[in-house]
Design brief:
single chain; mainly beta; Immunoglobulin-like; 2 domains; four-stranded antiparallel β-sheet; 2 helices; 8 strands
Length: 141
């Protein structure tokens, strides 16, 4: 075995470090070990809207997920969040929210810090051929 091959074989963790470095450089927020994840949800007419705060104090990333159940509809739902744990209040808006039952970050490129306080989310689901149902979720974080 060549000297280079022996050096590479002894560095098994290098692949893990390289992967971690790639994740960090891609802008994906990694919650701290002591980070608290908080989820809220609401249901209306067979739709379910979910909101997640990836970390309730530092590097907060807000994500949403919409399950449209058996409803037909597009991907023009509306998601609006209000974080009263910041001053001034942090508001995030997505007027073309996907209803694909997959988590989507609303502020992945700009996580923020917060104190304690209320967090609210409003969903208006996109339903084909009918009035769009809406619901709200939230609570104290």
């Amino acid at each position: 075995m060549s000297k280079l091959a022996r050096t590479i074989s002894r560095r098994g963790p290098v692949v893990g470090v390289s992967t971690l470095l790639a994740i960090i450089l891609s802008g994906v927020a990694i919650p701290q070990a002591n980070a608290v994840v908080k989820d809220f949800s609401c249901v209306k007419d067979g739709f379910t809207g979910y909101i997640r705060l990836s970390d309730t104090r530092t590097n907060v990333v807000v994500s949403y997920k919409i399950n449209k159940g058996t409803n037909s509809g597009g991907n023009l739902a509306n998601v609006l969040t209000f974080d009263n744990g910041t001053a001034p209040r942090t508001e995030l808006v997505n007027n073309a929210a996907r209803q694909d039952n997959v988590w989507h970050a609303m502020n992945a490129n700009s996580p923020y810090r917060r104190g304690s306080g209320g967090f609210d989310a409003s969903f208006t689901f996109d339903k084909s051929g009918a009035r769009d149902p809406s619901c709200t979720a939230g609570g104290v974080v």
